Amino acid sequence: ILYTQFALWRQYPAEKGFDTANWDERRYLDAISYQPLNMHYRLKLASFYIYLGKAGPAEGQFLKAVKLDRTNSVVHYDLANFYASELGGSRLDLAAEYYKKAMSFSPEGFQPDILDNAYKNFKGDYGRLRNIVKQTDVANHMFAGFLRDKKRYKESVREFKKSVILADKNKNRYIKADSTNWIAIIYGWQGDISGAIKYFERAIDLAEDNSYKGWIYRNMGNTYLNSGDFKKAESACKKSIESDPSAAANYYTLGNVYDKIGLPRQARDCYYTALKFTNDRYLLEQISKKLKEINS
């Protein structure tokens, strides 16, 4: 027991000599000898070998840890990171194999972290990334959002479209609606207004929740506003308010439309109404700026 506690709790000294390194290693090995089926201790020893720059021993301990718990996403993730590192030989094919296993066993909340590390280690290689993601509507939707946040819009749209197809097969209406909405938003960002509106209209038809439908109408309003079509922007924003009359952002966006076309009184009314429905700091700051500009 003392050996296992010492191996887990001891901090590395500031200055390491050969004897000290071996002395620590012996205690990790002793801890494993007491509990040879304990995957956690083997990961500790693998990490210790990485610290020492011993690639072979580290790999061996990682592989033993994987055998002890084949469905543990963290073990596969750690091994993938090792193979992707210079110490592990930058063996990206092996790294991809274990990232894929990590993705398949991980909870949804851990998957973006796995993807982010894989993205860095693969230097943004879309093909390698694509191969580690499960072919499900939820996984594709998450992957598409990840690519969107990396500003990889072409690939993001491709993955959102795949998630729409998969969601349709699985009758997952929410994923289908949200993916369609994001396709529209990205098209709008890229200046494809007709494409954006087409997908916004599809998303509205799919949306079952009024507040969500209000968000889609607001996105449509912003797209029209940015394209200079103020009449259609006003109409879409009013529909967003009809769908969700308690969403501050809906009033704020309509206020922006009125401000843009030179109707300060209507814009002011919208901004003051928005204040009644929000305590969001960022939105409050934006509304405050708009009101100062109008009242100055």
Describe this structure in words.
The protein has 296 residues and is mainly α. Helix content is 78%, strand content 0%. The protein contains 17 helices and no strands. The protein is elongated, with a radius of gyration of 26 Å. The relative contact order is 0.04. The N terminus is likely disordered.
What's the short version?
This protein has 296 residues and is an all-alpha fold. It is 78% helix and 0% strand. It has 17 helices and no strands.
What's the helix count? Answer: 17
Strand content: under 5%
List unreliable stretches of 5+ residues.
1-21
Task: Label the overall shape.
Answer: elongated
Number of strands: 0
Spatial gap, N to C terminus = 73 Å
Helix content: over 70%
String of helices and strands = HHHHHHHHHHHHHHHHH
Please identify the structural class as seen in this structure: mainly alpha
Radius of gyration from the CA trace?
A: 26 Å
- How would a textbook summarize the main sheet? none
How are the SSEs placed, and which strands pair?
Layout: H1 2-9, H2 18-34, H3 39-52, H4 55-68, H5 73-84, H6 92-105, H7 111-121, H8 126-132, H9 137-149, H10 153-170, H11 173-189, H12 193-206, H13 210-227, H14 230-243, H15 248-260, H16 264-275, H17 281-295
Helix pairs in contact: 1-2, 2-3, 3-4, 4-5, 5-6, 6-7, 6-8, 9-10, 9-11, 10-11, 11-12, 11-13, 12-13, 13-14, 13-15, 14-15, 15-16, 15-17, 16-17
